[in-house]
Design a protein that fits this description.
Layout lengths: L15 H17 L3 E2 L5 E3 L1 H7 L4 H6 L2 E3 L5 E4 L4 H10 L9 E10 L11 E10 L4 H18 L4 E7 L6 H19 L4 H9 L10 H8 L10 H16 L5 E2 L11 E9 L10 E5 L3 H4 L7 E7 H10 L12 E5 L2 H16 L4 E3 L6 H10 L4 E5 L1 H6 L1 E6 L5 E5 L3 H7 L1
Parallel strand pairs: 1-5, 7-8, 12-13, 12-14
Antiparallel strand pairs: 2-4, 3-4, 5-6, 6-11, 7-9, 9-10, 10-11, 14-15, 15-16
Helix pairs in contact: 1-5, 5-9
Length: 421
Amino acid sequence: MYKAPRGTSDILPAEQAYWKYVEEKAISLCQLYGYQPLSTPLLEDSQLFTRTSASGTDIVDKEMYIFKDRGGHELALRPEGTAPVCRAYLQHGLFSLPQPVRLYYIGATFRYERPQAGRYRQHQQFGFEAIGDADSALDAEVIVMARNFLLSLGLIQFTIQLNSIGCKLCQPRYREILKKHYTALNSIQGHLCSDCQTRLERNPLRLLDCKNASCQEMADTAPKTVDFLCPECRAHFQSLQEYLSILGISFQFNHRLVRGLDYYTRTVFEIQPGKGTTQQGALGGGGRYDNLIEELGGEFTPAVGFAAGMERLILKLKEEKISIPPLPEPVVFIAYLGSEAKNEAIKLAFQLRQVGIATIVAVGDKSLKAQLKQADARGTSYAIIIGKEEIESQSAILRDMKSGEQKIIPLAKVAETLISR
């Protein structure tokens, strides 16, 4: 028997209500803030990600699906959403529009990693990006949007964690100081994991993000990024905190927060599940990436954004037992007795659907009892019954499935009666 590949899953009808709920909340939020939808291909030039994410990050070193097509071009399944949005921004000249350009996306991303609860090799990501302005008020807007998105879903047990990792001017000095810190401790304690041994040379900032227990001890005592910010980055981070305070948005400073991609500058933030929850990992995160578009060949273009995995959010909704609206069921089920009545049922179903009434018509030669049992199982509000007597009198029996009340109405007035109800 064939099965879905490891790390992927089918979204069955019983689960679709969660997906519709999260997508509708995401779209409603973005419309409220003036963000417009953008869709990018699942396939991109692999260098779009290897160039912007840099070696030493898990995405580039371990997780990307890369292959050559029949033309010899090296392509990658999209591992994240921001770089493709920036590529589209450049390719289609969105820089000529009034800035910042506010965009959002919902789509599949792919990462080869160990599947676990809320984390899959193919997962759906919702994200939004504000491209074209360096104002820290835009960082605040994105953080507030992320917070309000979770609140709109009914999630309240979370914290916003915030940090600044500086820019091209102040990061190099901090990286060197961080390397000295880890090198000194490792020579004494020798606890660095194999991944961090590599990161120490290739990508020191990622040392702070290691989940290995022995490495976390070193990270806890590491120098803080905010102590080495240049004056411009310090002012930017200070004004961001002031905006959040003005808006009454609480946050926690986390000096170990760096995010998993190498293109981030200045602001980084994550939304972590609150204490007492079983879920591991962030509910979403983002930050500023002022150099990314320039690295792709454009002009210097500051930008900031947020992304969240939808599977992880749905898992959280279930964990907190948040009630969501069910998908709409058909309103009418048409049952019949006999071939002549079946013809009339098929014709009536066509007429009802033409005027927008969701209708199911029975199939096969089941008994009336079996047909009505099926109508009840589907949750339909009304059943219409047509038999020999109804054909002769050009009428139908209309049954309210909740109360059991029945009445006879003319076939020609079925649609009118249902609409009035």
